[in-house]
Amino acid sequence: MGPTEGPRPKPGMKAFRLIWFGQLVSIFGSEVTIFALAIWVWQETGQVTALALIPVFGWLPGLLFGPLAGALVDRWNRRLVLMLSDGGAAAMTLMLLILYLTGNLQIWHLYLAAAVGSLFSAFQWPALSATISLMVDKEDYSRANGMMSLAESTAMILAPVAGAVLITFLNLGDIFFIDLLTFLVALTTLLIVAIPEPKREEAPEEAKLLGLWADTWYGFVYILRRPGLLGIQLLLFSYNFVKSFGFAVLVPMVLARSGGDTLVLGAVQSAAGIGAVVGGLILSFWAGTNRQIYGVLRGIVLASLFTQVLFGLASEVLLWSAFAFIGTVFRPWINAANQAIWQRKVPPAVQGRVFGARATIALIALPLGYLFAGPLADHVFEPAMQPGGAWAELFAPLVGAGPGSGMALMTVGAGIITVLIGVVGYLIRPIRQVETIIPDHDTSPKKTQAVTA
Known about the structure:
By secondary structure, this protein is mainly alpha-helical.
């Protein structure tokens, strides 16, 4: 009798690094193009609204179709989904290139491209997140997720610099072409790396033999049935929602309190970007804490303390830059540790559906916060914190009184609440002990069935 066949070894971090490199190059190319397009739109229209509508069109389709995309990710080949996502985005860039070269490029074309590109991104994020759990051992989940955070942070820092240089010597069509080459790099790495497929039979009984419509909603059902995972999701929804009140006013607050000095704003944003890169680098070499939930909760507390509470109390560039740097070092910890928990607990066969639902919930929180933040700043906090305003005497010792003081008070208040949200997470047992209450997806089937019943 021959030996029993065990589980196939995973491709490992070496193979994942190759895919990561392709995604890094692709993200960088996309960010350079976004920067160049922003300049082109501003030169063509001179309107802030025309520029602001691009990210709006780039957000809505992903929110609306995220759950459906997750359901299809679980039904389709993961490598194919990733290639279609990158290929679809490349097709949009090619369309813009042709329109530009023929002299027909208009603003509404960018809105269309952003909307269609958002649809492809809705497939890419759950597919890529689920692929990590298939490629690397669970001890390396935090490291792999940290590398993805590093790729995004690096691109966001270097792309504006590269874009500013390239747009000086090249035209928009040349930048579109460079972006297409970066997509080709990503597609090549996906072709040459072996990406395992999940074992469909390992899906929980509740997830088998469902129709597409039921699959679309299954991710929400899965989360609702597991108090620990639901608690984490609600905690992060609350954190993102409240955090957005401070982040929505960060740029105008710094400009208002620095007399409109754009160099000060640039220094602060650069410090924040460098901090995010450092945080991602640390996680790329360090697997994080043994209890990933502590990484999530500590990250929330420390990031909120520095990037909101202390940042709002400060009033000069050195302190702003220091607090922005320190706080954003901790921000990748939140995402990487959170991803590692979900990748450990959710069976790979249903990760597309569950991660699609998570993405939708996360996307809702931020625009909701931004929607309320602007009117609150303009009509409540700023007027109340001007000299002689209703709150000026009470809060002026903390944030001063005058332009930007109301937004500073908003930032401090939002930061205090988000610090408390992180502390509350420690006090809720299903959240604090989620890693012991819910078994990993690769534990014995009997234990898994007991939890999912």
